[in-house]
Amino acid sequence: MPKPHESEYDLASNSYGLLRIVGGWGNVRGPGLVMFQSMVAGTTCAAVFGLTASVASSMLFGTATLPFIIGSSIGFALGSLRWYIASTKEALLQLSRYPSLLRLHIAANFPWIPEYSRRHVSWFTVERFSSDWVHKSILIASWLSAQPALEEIHSQVEASIVQQCTDSGLEEGNVEAVADEKLVRQGTNRSTHGPGKARDS
Protein backbone atom coordinates (compact mmCIF):
# COMPACT_ATOMS: atom_id res chain seq x y z
CA MET A 1 0.00 0.00 0.00
CA PRO A 2 1.54 3.36 -1.04
CA LYS A 3 2.36 5.84 1.67
CA PRO A 4 0.37 9.10 1.77
CA HIS A 5 3.42 11.22 0.96
CA GLU A 6 4.31 9.29 -2.19
CA SER A 7 3.94 11.21 -5.43
CA GLU A 8 2.52 9.96 -8.70
CA TYR A 9 6.04 9.30 -9.98
CA ASP A 10 6.80 7.19 -6.90
CA LEU A 11 3.74 5.07 -7.61
CA ALA A 12 5.09 4.30 -11.06
CA SER A 13 8.53 3.50 -9.72
CA ASN A 14 7.52 0.72 -7.33
CA SER A 15 7.28 -2.98 -8.15
CA TYR A 16 3.83 -2.55 -9.73
CA GLY A 17 4.80 0.42 -11.88
CA LEU A 18 5.09 -1.60 -15.08
CA LEU A 19 1.59 -2.99 -14.62
CA ARG A 20 0.23 0.50 -14.08
CA ILE A 21 1.92 1.90 -17.17
CA VAL A 22 1.57 -0.96 -19.66
CA GLY A 23 -1.56 -2.73 -18.52
CA GLY A 24 -3.62 0.22 -17.39
CA TRP A 25 -3.88 -1.25 -13.89
CA GLY A 26 -4.72 1.21 -11.13
CA ASN A 27 -5.07 4.88 -11.94
CA VAL A 28 -3.53 4.75 -15.42
CA ARG A 29 -6.41 4.38 -17.85
CA GLY A 30 -6.42 7.45 -20.11
CA PRO A 31 -4.22 6.05 -22.91
CA GLY A 32 -6.35 2.92 -23.11
CA LEU A 33 -9.51 5.02 -23.38
CA VAL A 34 -7.93 7.04 -26.18
CA MET A 35 -7.15 3.94 -28.22
CA PHE A 36 -10.54 2.36 -27.58
CA GLN A 37 -12.66 5.40 -28.44
CA SER A 38 -10.51 6.23 -31.45
CA MET A 39 -11.00 2.70 -32.77
CA VAL A 40 -14.76 2.88 -32.18
CA ALA A 41 -15.04 6.18 -34.06
CA GLY A 42 -12.80 4.97 -36.87
CA THR A 43 -14.54 1.60 -37.20
CA THR A 44 -17.98 3.22 -37.38
CA CYS A 45 -16.92 5.55 -40.19
CA ALA A 46 -15.03 2.73 -41.90
CA ALA A 47 -18.19 0.63 -42.03
CA VAL A 48 -20.25 3.52 -43.44
CA PHE A 49 -17.68 4.52 -46.06
CA GLY A 50 -16.86 0.94 -46.99
CA LEU A 51 -20.48 -0.13 -47.44
CA THR A 52 -21.31 3.02 -49.40
CA ALA A 53 -18.35 2.49 -51.74
CA SER A 54 -19.14 -1.19 -52.18
CA VAL A 55 -22.80 -0.55 -53.04
CA ALA A 56 -21.90 2.15 -55.56
CA SER A 57 -19.16 0.00 -57.09
CA SER A 58 -21.36 -3.07 -57.35
CA MET A 59 -24.02 -1.07 -59.19
CA LEU A 60 -21.49 0.40 -61.62
CA PHE A 61 -18.93 -2.37 -62.10
CA GLY A 62 -20.48 -5.49 -60.62
CA THR A 63 -17.70 -5.94 -58.06
CA ALA A 64 -16.89 -4.20 -54.79
CA THR A 65 -13.79 -5.74 -53.22
CA LEU A 66 -11.22 -3.04 -53.87
CA PRO A 67 -13.66 -0.11 -53.44
CA PHE A 68 -14.72 -1.53 -50.07
CA ILE A 69 -11.10 -1.74 -48.89
CA ILE A 70 -10.32 1.78 -50.09
CA GLY A 71 -13.56 3.25 -48.73
CA SER A 72 -13.25 1.59 -45.34
CA SER A 73 -9.60 2.67 -45.03
CA ILE A 74 -10.47 6.27 -45.84
CA GLY A 75 -13.44 6.12 -43.47
CA PHE A 76 -11.33 4.82 -40.60
CA ALA A 77 -8.76 7.57 -41.07
CA LEU A 78 -11.37 10.32 -41.34
CA GLY A 79 -13.39 9.01 -38.39
CA SER A 80 -10.38 8.80 -36.11
CA LEU A 81 -9.16 12.23 -37.21
CA ARG A 82 -12.58 13.80 -36.63
CA TRP A 83 -12.74 12.22 -33.16
CA TYR A 84 -9.25 13.53 -32.36
CA ILE A 85 -10.14 17.08 -33.40
CA ALA A 86 -13.42 17.10 -31.46
CA SER A 87 -11.76 15.57 -28.39
CA THR A 88 -8.96 18.13 -28.50
CA LYS A 89 -11.41 21.02 -28.50
CA GLU A 90 -13.43 19.56 -25.63
CA ALA A 91 -10.32 18.70 -23.59
CA LEU A 92 -8.94 22.23 -23.98
CA LEU A 93 -12.29 23.67 -22.94
CA GLN A 94 -12.38 21.54 -19.80
CA LEU A 95 -8.76 22.49 -19.05
CA SER A 96 -9.72 26.16 -19.07
CA ARG A 97 -12.61 25.43 -16.70
CA TYR A 98 -11.03 22.92 -14.31
CA PRO A 99 -7.21 23.14 -14.48
CA SER A 100 -6.74 21.58 -11.03
CA LEU A 101 -8.76 18.49 -11.95
CA LEU A 102 -6.97 18.01 -15.27
CA ARG A 103 -3.60 18.52 -13.58
CA LEU A 104 -4.44 15.71 -11.16
CA HIS A 105 -5.36 13.30 -13.97
CA ILE A 106 -2.38 14.28 -16.12
CA ALA A 107 0.01 13.51 -13.27
CA ALA A 108 -1.81 10.25 -12.50
CA ASN A 109 -1.95 9.00 -16.09
CA PHE A 110 1.65 9.92 -16.90
CA PRO A 111 3.60 9.35 -13.67
CA TRP A 112 6.80 8.58 -15.59
CA ILE A 113 6.91 12.30 -16.53
CA PRO A 114 7.58 13.89 -13.10
CA GLU A 115 7.44 17.37 -14.60
CA TYR A 116 3.65 17.37 -14.46
CA SER A 117 3.42 16.54 -10.76
CA ARG A 118 5.95 19.25 -9.88
CA ARG A 119 4.30 22.03 -11.85
CA HIS A 120 1.87 24.49 -10.26
CA VAL A 121 -1.70 24.52 -11.51
CA SER A 122 -1.10 27.88 -13.21
CA TRP A 123 1.32 26.10 -15.58
CA PHE A 124 -1.52 24.05 -17.07
CA THR A 125 -2.88 26.51 -19.61
CA VAL A 126 -4.77 26.13 -22.87
CA GLU A 127 -1.99 27.88 -24.77
CA ARG A 128 0.66 25.44 -23.57
CA PHE A 129 -1.34 22.27 -24.20
CA SER A 130 -2.48 23.38 -27.63
CA SER A 131 1.06 24.14 -28.78
CA ASP A 132 2.04 20.65 -30.03
CA TRP A 133 0.61 17.19 -30.59
CA VAL A 134 2.39 15.65 -27.59
CA HIS A 135 0.67 17.91 -25.09
CA LYS A 136 -2.64 17.47 -26.91
CA SER A 137 -2.41 13.69 -26.72
CA ILE A 138 -1.56 13.80 -23.02
CA LEU A 139 -4.45 16.17 -22.35
CA ILE A 140 -6.97 14.04 -24.28
CA ALA A 141 -6.00 10.90 -22.39
CA SER A 142 -6.29 12.68 -19.05
CA TRP A 143 -9.59 14.31 -20.04
CA LEU A 144 -11.07 10.90 -20.82
CA SER A 145 -10.05 9.51 -17.44
CA ALA A 146 -11.56 12.61 -15.78
CA GLN A 147 -14.97 12.04 -17.37
CA PRO A 148 -16.63 10.59 -14.22
CA ALA A 149 -15.47 13.55 -12.14
CA LEU A 150 -16.59 16.04 -14.79
CA GLU A 151 -20.00 14.39 -14.96
CA GLU A 152 -20.29 14.58 -11.18
CA ILE A 153 -19.42 18.29 -11.25
CA HIS A 154 -22.03 18.84 -13.95
CA SER A 155 -24.65 16.99 -11.91
CA GLN A 156 -23.89 19.03 -8.80
CA VAL A 157 -24.02 22.31 -10.72
CA GLU A 158 -27.28 21.25 -12.34
CA ALA A 159 -28.78 20.34 -8.97
CA SER A 160 -27.70 23.71 -7.55
CA ILE A 161 -29.32 25.57 -10.46
CA VAL A 162 -32.53 23.57 -10.09
CA GLN A 163 -32.60 24.35 -6.36
CA GLN A 164 -32.09 28.06 -7.04
CA CYS A 165 -34.89 28.06 -9.61
CA THR A 166 -37.14 26.21 -7.19
CA ASP A 167 -36.41 28.65 -4.36
CA SER A 168 -36.95 31.60 -6.70
CA GLY A 169 -40.25 30.13 -7.85
CA LEU A 170 -41.38 29.65 -4.26
CA GLU A 171 -40.50 33.24 -3.41
CA GLU A 172 -42.41 34.54 -6.43
CA GLY A 173 -45.34 32.36 -5.48
CA ASN A 174 -45.30 33.74 -1.93
CA VAL A 175 -45.24 37.33 -3.24
CA GLU A 176 -48.17 36.62 -5.54
CA ALA A 177 -50.07 34.97 -2.70
CA VAL A 178 -49.55 38.02 -0.47
CA ALA A 179 -50.66 40.34 -3.26
CA ASP A 180 -53.79 38.28 -3.88
CA GLU A 181 -54.56 38.28 -0.17
CA LYS A 182 -54.30 42.08 -0.07
CA LEU A 183 -56.65 42.40 -3.02
CA VAL A 184 -59.13 40.10 -1.35
CA ARG A 185 -58.98 42.14 1.87
CA GLN A 186 -59.46 45.40 -0.02
CA GLY A 187 -62.45 43.98 -1.81
CA THR A 188 -63.91 42.76 1.47
CA ASN A 189 -63.44 46.15 3.11
CA ARG A 190 -65.12 47.94 0.22
CA SER A 191 -68.11 45.62 0.31
CA THR A 192 -68.38 46.07 4.09
CA HIS A 193 -68.21 49.90 4.13
CA GLY A 194 -70.22 50.45 0.98
CA PRO A 195 -73.79 49.96 2.37
CA GLY A 196 -72.99 52.07 5.45
CA LYS A 197 -71.99 54.99 3.32
CA ALA A 198 -75.16 54.59 1.30
CA ARG A 199 -77.37 54.75 4.49
CA ASP A 200 -75.50 57.83 5.79
CA SER A 201 -76.23 59.67 2.59
Helix and strand element order: HHHHHHHHH
Oligomer: single chain
Shape: flat
Low-confidence stretches: 1-27
Keywords: Membrane, Transmembrane, Transmembrane helix
Region (Disordered): 181-201
Transmembrane segments: 39-60, 66-85
Any overview of this molecule?
The chain is mainly α and 201 residues long. It has a domain of 139 residues. 82% of the residues lie in helices and 0% in strands. Helix 4 packs across helix 8.
Question: What key attributes describe this structure?
Answer:
single chain; 201 residues; mainly alpha; 9 helices; flat; transmembrane helix; transmembrane
Summarize the SSE layout with pairings.
Elements: H1 8-13, H2 17-23, H3 30-61, H4 65-97, H5 99-109, H6 114-118, H7 126-129, H8 133-145, H9 147-200
Task: Produce a short descriptive summary.
The protein has 201 residues and is mainly alpha-helical. The chain is built from 9 helices and no strands. The chain is flat.
